């Protein structure tokens, strides 16, 4: 690659970085504005909006409610997605292509169509809107992401390790628990964090399937209907910092686990 191409690539890279991070920085700064209106210049600064987030019982409850939904849906999607990945990877059976296609389908359907379909299906099954319906919809939507990540990791597992365990007398379940599952931990963790963030950030399915208790994205949407304010920026900033911290921790833990598995 010549010097001109490297410069062009660097320009594209930094333009993308600015495109992503400048709006986030502006959002964070607006949360410190000592005014109820969004806009520049910021003539005075305050922490009232951020302290208000941690003293607002409704916001704290909604945040906890969203976290519970995200954790429950992630647990379900990880169990089901890992089972499907183990079933599909390295095996040839009649209907495998159909099973794989059905597994991937929830990730390909547009969110609004998926939400409408879930709402109709929930009413047909007699499932009332609320936490259960949201967890169910989020889990179904997240299963494909878990399966694809786990299948990619599973395809690199040395077959000799499984064969050695079987030769030493381990049955399929013991071989899976002692060989396959530890090897899949980095992939499962990465998929779990991804699903956790997807569920926490999901608005459309939560809006269509939610009851009287809104999730955090639905609450922010309801607040936006009365106009943008620094309070919304503060709530979004707190959520951004927490999710970023979880992502950084997961990335470091996954990297450390990968290094340990290679030793």
Automatic annotation (TrEMBL):
Transmembrane parts of this sequence: 7-32, 63-88, 100-121, 133-154, 175-200, 232-250
One of the record's GO cellular component terms: plasma membrane
Signal peptide, first to last residue: none
Annotated ABC transmembrane type-1 domain residues: 63-250
Compartments in which it is found: Cell membrane
InterPro entries the record matches: Bact_Polyamine_Transport, MetI-like, MetI-like_sf
GO biological process: transmembrane transport
Primary location recorded for the protein, binned into one broad class: membrane
CDD domains (alphabetical): TM_PBP2 (cd06261)
Keywords linked to the UniProt accession: Cell membrane, Membrane, Transmembrane, Transmembrane helix, Transport
Any Pfam family hit: BPD_transp_1
Protein topology in the membrane: Multi-pass membrane protein
Domain of life: Bacteria
SUPFAM superfamilies the record matches: MetI-like
Family: Belongs to the binding-protein-dependent transport system permease family. CysTW subfamily.
Protein name: Spermidine/putrescine ABC transporter permease
């Amino acid at each position: 690659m010549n010097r001109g191409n490297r410069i062009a690539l660097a320009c594209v890279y930094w333009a993308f970085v600015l495109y992503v991070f400048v709006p986030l920085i502006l959002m964070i700064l607006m949360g410190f504005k000592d005014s109820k209106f969004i806009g520049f210049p910021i003539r005075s600064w305050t922490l009232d909006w951020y302290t208000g987030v941690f003293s607002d019982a409704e916001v704290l409850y909604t945040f906890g409610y969203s976290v519970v939904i995200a954790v429950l849906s992630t647990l379900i999607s990880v169990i089901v997605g890992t089972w499907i990945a183990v079933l599909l990877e390295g095996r040839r059976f009649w209907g495998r292509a159909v099973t794989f296609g059905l597994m991937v389908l929830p990730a390909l359907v547009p969110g609004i169509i998926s939400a409408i379909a879930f709402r109709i299906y929930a009413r047909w099954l007699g499932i009332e809107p609320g936490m259960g319906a949201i967890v169910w919809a989020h889990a179904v939507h997240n299963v494909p992401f878990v399966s694809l990540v786990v299948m990619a990791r599973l395809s690199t597992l040395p077959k000799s390790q499984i064969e050695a365990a079987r030769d030493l007398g381990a049955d399929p379940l013991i071989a899976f628990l002692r060989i396959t599952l530890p090897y899949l931990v980095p992939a499962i963790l990465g998929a779990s964090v991804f699903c956790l963030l997807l569920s926490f950030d999901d608005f459309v399915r939560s809006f269509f399937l939610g009851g009287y208790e809104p999730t955090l994205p639905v609450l922010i949407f309801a607040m936006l209907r009365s106009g943008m304010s620094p309070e919304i920026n503060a709530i979004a900033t707190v959520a951004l910092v927490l999710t970023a911290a979880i992502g950084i921790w997961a990335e470091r833990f996954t990297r450390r686990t990968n290094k340990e598995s290679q030793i």
